[in-house]
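Lecture 7 notes. Example A: sequence first, then its structure tokens.
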Amino acid sequence: MKTQQHFVAAAASAVIASAPLAHAFTSSNGGCSSCSVTVSRHSPLHMAPSYDSIDAQALLELENRISSVIQSDPSSPLALSLGRHAPSPLSMEEAAAQHGMPWDTTIGRTDEANPLLYMPFWEWQLEFMQDSLSNLHPIDCSTLSDTDVTFKENKEKRARIVNQCYASDEYRKIRMTYYDAGDSVQVFNSVWYPDPKYNLPVLGIDILSFNRKKYLAIVDFQPLHEDEDDHATTYEHILKPIKEKYDNLKGRMSSKFYDETQFFSKEMLFARFEDGKIVDNDLLPAFKSYVKTHLNLVQSTPPSTNPQDVQAVFERQRAYDTYSADRDPAAGLFAAMFGKQWAEDFIYDFLFSLGERSEDGLNLSPPMFGGPPPGAAGKGGPPQKGVNPYAKENKAAQSVPRL
């Protein structure tokens, strides 16, 4: 999986190799013939020279060369910021149509006229992204082991899953998943990660149907910090009037899989219901409003230009991924349908690709109740105080128009 650091390293190598800059870096007075570039999946780029000092003018020229390359083409991979994935070679049209999407028939058994219950959510979201996001493009979905997670099916059990991944100027990653097993199970899942220059919550969407008799829905602005005021701007006040419209979406989460006080907001849309009409009458319009409001929140929030602030937000997104990967309630389903190794790669390298993979592999046992285990600090866990760079007294209050 190629990330930003691979491209910057390549750019640095290319620029250093160019004349006359190459001479400045390899000359006897300030030479750097043994300069090395160290790249790690979870660490920033480090130039590690084996010398005490280099030609300051040469270094400045190197920085200017890289900067000019990045600024000359905003769509270039070199323009990517922290945590970005490599762009896919596919066009938007090709990526959206992969594996026959959007499907219009199910692989499973059905007695319903609309067997793909949540496909309207998928289609609306993709159209909204194309109409509303800046420089939207598909990104690489490969895993570290080169496992193809864009599509998987189990013909014997009549189940299949499709995944797409996109990025824009506003979001470093938007992933979309549709799981189809006929009337037995229908799932639409999506997570929108703002570019870490925005200290804002992650948009999480998880909507499921079981046997067309039991339904579960979660749509939320999932906070990075325990205190809402520690984000770049507050947001729960703009969600509250939306949630107030839908009494069927005001449920409370049990602690079976997650602790609702960790990475969940007070205005989370949560529902368990048995009346399928709620999907179209309440859930779909509420979902649309939350998606529109999240984008409006991002677009109306000034981005940070402080690298330390951006890194701090990125670390909180990493903590979110680790916490979520360790508690994914669908892990057992994925392992049973598509194999344990595929499920591990899918959860750790696609769904929550910043998360730390457990040394013991995927945990398929029933998830523990409540929060993280003792001693888990630093490996995910709840939003925390005192670790983010935005103090209440250091930022002006901002407001976002309601939708």
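Example B, a different protein, same format:
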Amino acid sequence: MQLTGKHTAARPCAPRTVRAAGRARVVLVRAEAAAAAANPATAAKHQEHEELKRYGVFKLAYDTSNEDPSLTKAWQKTVKVAVTGASGQISNHLLFMLASGEVFGKNQPVALQLLGSDRSFGALEGVAMELEDSLYPLLREVSIGTDPYAVFKDADWALMIGAKPRGPGQERADLLDQNGRIFVDQGKALDASASKNCKVLVVGNPCNTNALIAMENAPSIPRKNFHALTRLDENRAKCQLALKAGKFYTNVSRTTIWGNHSTTQVRLASMFAGDDSLTSLASSLQVVMWLHCAHYQSCCGINALHRPSAACFA
């Protein structure tokens, strides 16, 4: 990310009517989810699901006990990782990190269970081919499918990347009707199929709201297991505040963000490490408002100049 010391006029924050509309849509989606959960016909509708298909060489069973003990003696039990939006840009980076051991460790074999759609299934097969070609020893299984109930079966981790992207000039609230319903369905699938200790990381935007919707629809999974990937907002807040203070961003600490990745988000950093004189700067209302607008301009600028930036930070 390239930054300069100049900032254009701040874009006005979203009016209350926009924020109210967003909240109303969340309430509506949650109410519909509760009504659906109470309807036996809805539950019965999902009793039969497609079978998850193993791909290519992974159609065979690879029992680690048959491997060279010098390779596997320190290995843990295979962890099942379900990934939605598995044929997209973000997954194209993430899946190979998962398979190589960069995420869970060099002694943790993984089974990847990849969710796509009817429209993206061809691309999903291409991803599976690439994983097959990579010959990662820790990658024990690759399964692909379009039914979340099948893909989430016994999953220890669910990385929920798939979501409808925001269009140019579109507010996050405008996505709630579409993405909210996606995460209602996937939350129900998690509740019915995944391990009851499944860890859920929501990436698809607006990730805070989508995490809430998925969590509300998966009551059998502990609420503490749901997480929204908002690190990008924290990083941008630190960088903008450090730029304003003329310090390197490693000096900024105790950064907190509230709300979705949009004009209504609030960011606050309460301290500059090693420089108490700058602490008051972070808590100043004027600086918080400046930070709010500078962050939003940074976000819009990156999206306009380099849309694939989401592949790194979602």
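Note on Example B: The longest helix spans residues 16-37. Residues 1-21, 40-46 have pLDDT under 50 and may be disordered.
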